[in-house]
Design a protein that fits this description.
- The strands form four sheets. A six-stranded parallel beta sheet has the order 3-2-4-5-7-6, with helices on both faces. It has a six-stranded parallel beta sheet with strand order 11-10-9-12-13-14. A six-stranded parallel beta sheet has the order 16-15-17-18-20-19, sandwiched between helices.
- It has 22 helices and 20 strands.
- By secondary structure, the chain is an alpha/beta fold.
- Helix 3 crosses helix 17 and helix 15 packs parallel to helix 21.
């Protein structure tokens, strides 16, 4: 055994458990956690704000599938990262935050970084928050967190360790064993037979795929999963929707794909036409539907691994606990007696065209820019978007040819996400192309993290969609008959701001120069700010 301060041992244990990167900011209260980082062989990424560190860990986790880990200090450091913790919790992102904490807070007041209940504050925004007062407890909680983030509830966790415990010397006597890998959950055979029977009898079966079904887009189980999924859809004649997070699960050229259009109000009418709905790997939450109910009148089968989702009281719900890929692998072994004939490719195409026109009318000028962006990017580009009108429209119309490549702060819906998340994602995927898309207002929430991208020389196009205002809020106020207030701000010169940080910049004025700016940004070392006025499509014509 090797004796070290517990703060150093934590880094060694994380390395032993497969962690390669730590995002964070050192301080006097957590400096012992930094003692062992280099010795353990971990890479540390210095954020400019703990919120940035958290979003970087989130982006890294979404890109790689591995837990994103962050180190922060007591008090304000933890408070600053709580927004990313809430985002990771709502979007089922595997993140572990480890912080220091004060040794005693009841009898002593006025200490540096003191909070009334630090553990409880963190618990309000993550899956769980616990205090490790001994080395044994720290090792046990780290293993609990890492195992749950790999095979269990992939939501943010928090562990805090008192400063004196971090400083105390201890042995590296954590269990020396490999981490548990994902354990595929097989569906019960009776449920597979039942689903196959219903699919055989249905005239208009419909699948809804969420982010939990993304594995269906990758090779595995000894076969090509996209072909597996498409074979089941074709054999049953089923139509399909995806949530925003599920885009790319179904091949974009599948003729009965309605796309990521669940938020279209009339999608409820389409869903009501179905005589069987099977929802796979989705919570069907408000941010998926933007209405209280999916709209189905037929049986709803829910295929998921999350007991909370399966226990939902949604009308006509039948729960099937299974991994998406295992469910489809077993479903593929069934006989369906030929495809149904209730859906037609012409009807689906006409409906999608109508919805596209709606989106173009609601947010003029965005659809052409999204099309131009698609044509300019390599197929495997990892995209991170922020809460901005461009992303709201693009999420519905941008065709994804693979799942898990467009990341957005869906549930918690925080501004300032995309830039630091894209930095974390780019660190995770290396040479694979990656971009960030932000609004002019949201960019300024975490603009300081641009320094990290410059410092690390990350090839990263950063598209700023500039309408000079909080456009979505202004539109909402107008719809509510509220005189728009506090929705217009004065922006800096974004290109000069990029220069001040040491980044490249471009200000394209038409779609052709926009595409050229993207391609050039992907070809150089270091980040590039691409400042795009929201009327660029109109000026191009």
């Amino acid at each position: 055994m090797t004796t070290r301060p517990l703060g150093a041992q934590i880094s060694h244990m994380l390395k032993d458990r497969g962690v390669d990167v730590i995002f964070g900011i050192p301080g006097v209260h957590n400096q012992e956690m930094y003692r062992g980082i280099e010795e353990a062989g971990l890479r540390h990424v210095l954020a400019r704000h703990e919120q940035g560190a958290g979003f970087m860990a989130d982006g890294y986790a979404r890109a790689t599938g591995k837990p994103g880990v962050a180190y922060v200090i007591t008090g304000p450091g933890l408070c600053n990262i709580m927004t990313p913790m809430g985002q990771a919790y709502s979007d089922s992102v595997p993140m572990l935050v480890i912080s220091s904490c004060l040794d005693e807070t009841a009898a002593r007041r006025g200490q540096l970084h003191q909070m009334k209940d630090q553990e409880g504050a963190a618990r309000a925004v993550c899956d769980w928050s616990e205090t490790a007062r001994t080395a044994e407890a720290a090792y046990g909680l780290i293993d609990r967190a890492m195992n749950e983030l790999t095979i269990g509830t992939r939501r943010s966790k928090h562990i805090q360790v008192p400063i004196s415990a971090l400083e105390g010397r201890t042995n590296d006597d954590w269990p020396k064993m490999p981490m548990l890998g994902p354990r595929p959950i097989e569906p019960e055979p009776d449920w597979v037979h039942y689903a196959a029977q219903l699919l055989s009898e249905a005239e208009r079966p419909l699948f809804v795929f969420g982010g939990g079904a993304r594995q269906l887009g990758y090779p595995g189980l000894g076969q090509d999963r996209p072909e597996l999924l498409e074979r089941v859809l074709t054999q049953t004649g089923a139509a399909a929707f995806t949530t925003y997070a599920g885009r790319g699960v179904v091949p974009a050229d599948y003729p009965l794909l309605f796309g990521a259009m669940l938020a279209r109000p009339s999608s409820a009418d389409i869903i009501k036409m179905s005589d069987l709905v099977i929802a796979v790997g989705t919570t069907l939450s408000e941010v998926d539907l933007w209405r209280p109910h999916l709209g189905h009148a037929a049986r709803l089968l829910r295929v998921d691994t999350d007991a909370e989702i399966l226990a939902s009281t949604v009308s006509y719900q039948y729960p099937i606990r299974a991994d998406a890929e295992m469910f489809f692998a077993r479903l593929d072994e069934q006989s369906f007696g030929g495809p149904s004939t209730g859906w037609s490719a012409d009807m689906v195409a006409t409906t999608r065209k109508s919805w596209l026109s709606e989106i173009d009318a609601e947010r003029p000028g965005i659809v052409p820019v999204a099309d131009a962006l698609k044509d300019a990017l390599p197929a495997d580009t990892m995209i991170y978007s922020d809460m901005t009108q461009f992303a709201y429209a693009a999420k519905e119309v941008y065709p994804m040819d693979r799942p898990g490549h467009w990341h957005h702060p869906y549930g918690f819906g925080t501004l300032g996400y995309a830039l630091p998340a894209a930095i974390g994602g780019k660190i995770g995927i290396g040479e694979q192309p990656c971009i960030a898309i932000l609004g002019d207002y949201g960019f300024q929430y975490t603009v300081q993290e641009l320094a990290v991208a410059v410092e690390l020389e990350l090839t990263l196009p950063i598209i700023i969609w500039d309408n000079g205002k909080l456009g979505e809020i202004e539109d909402s106020m107008v719809r509510a008959q509220i005189a728009p207030n506090a929705v217009v701000q004065r922006n800096p010169d974004f290109c000069k701001l990029a220069e001040a940080y040491g980044a490249a910049s471009a200000a394209p004025t038409d779609l052709a120069s926009f595409q050229q700016a993207i391609k050039q940004a992907l070809a150089i070392k270091g980040p590039t700010i691409i400042h795009v006025k929201s009327d660029i499509a109109l000026t191009s014509s």
